[in-house]
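To start, one record:
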Amino acid sequence: MDILTRFFGFIPPEKPPILVSIFPQAAAQRIQSGKLPVIQADKIVLGKNEICHFVDVAALFTTKKRYRSSRHGGSYRITKGFTFHLGNSDTVALDEPEYTKGILYITNNRIIFVASRYGFDQRLNKLTAITPYSDGLTLQFGSKSYNLLLPDSETANNAINLLI
């Protein structure tokens, strides 16, 4: 607990996690050359004729709403059991970032994010938009968007583009 939290009730925003890639460099070079590697994925259940082409650590970026209230004014005790309050109180809504670490799998049929919270499994043919960034991707499936931080977002983007 630091001084800001202790005295002012201020909770500093969560910092993005440092992600170290587990994707083999040879497989990344194969994707960069336009060919999809076959990755052995033991942690997910693959369907019939489904092949895993990409697996790496990732963090899902979401925002959580927090409320901070502050009170201005004073309280005066009139008698035992009766206190007179003056002033006002304000409640401010704060959107704080939240990062959930997990493993991202890309198969020829699905994009799967395995995590303790907020994991997802979406079909590749339901993908409507990909927005690449220097440190991640935003994947949109209909009205639902997923913001993912990745150690090598360019390779993941190229793998998805080779599949669609």
